[in-house]
From TrEMBL:
PROSITE patterns: HTH_LYTTR, RESPONSE_REGULATORY. Transmembrane segments: none annotated. Keywords: Phosphoprotein. Residues 4-117 form the Response regulatory domain. Residues 147-250 form the HTH LytTR-type domain. GO terms for molecular function: DNA binding; phosphorelay response regulator activity. InterPro entries: CheY-like_superfamily, LytR-like, LytTR_DNA-bd_dom, Sig_transdc_resp-reg_receiver. SMART domains: LytTR, REC. The modification 4-aspartylphosphate is found at D56. It comes from Larkinella arboricola. This is LytTR family two component transcriptional regulator.
Amino acid sequence: MVLKALLIDDEQPNLDNLQALLEMYCPQVKICGTALNAQDATRLLYIHQPDLMFLDIQMPGQNGFDLLRSLPAYHFEVIFVTAYDQYAIQALRFSAIDYLLKPVAIEELQAAVERAHRQHHQKEQNKLLQNLMHFLKADPKLDEPRIALATAKETRFVKTSEIIRCESSNNYTTFYLTGSETLLVCKPIYSYNDLLGACGFIRCHQSHLVNKMYIKSWKKEFGDFLLLTDGSQVPISRRNREELKRLLRF
């Protein structure tokens, strides 16, 4: 399992050095972004939804602790990286997986990354177990199926009947819900094929899953696409066209 990581430090040479060390000695880490201040870091958090953050503490404006305080919640691991060891107690209070002093030692960096990797894996297993227990406890006569969707802020348990459609973008999937709400999840759309297929969802395109109950019509103007009750239009690929006709029974 590869950890997506953000690197936050107000000095570019420090970012360059840490990035070089990670690329050379920590192959289980994939760097998805870097930032020189807390404001840019917050924007990148919502774009990339990382698994791990290497966070400098002493920065102009918002420091590292201020950045974490400003978030409603965070589900990534944190490794503080700083030149000042007097921040250690505060770092521990923020439940950092580790604390590295500059200049960063290779052995300490590798050990911190390994601990973060184990911690993240355990959290993922706990999410899966939580979802499993929900389904095992549900009364199929009374409860609608729910799916656990892990975003950057939280893990939401969403009724499948509240999902209008899903749209893929590389390794991310956007869930469009009733009430005009969207959830961005860091999983590819094929991860949901079997689970949602059993709940009445149809794969009409490589990048789209739609809930049958929200299909309004099949349009044939300028190519085939489905018109959904929320007004969205979803393309139908040639590859999925005949199977879609069969599932919709026409």
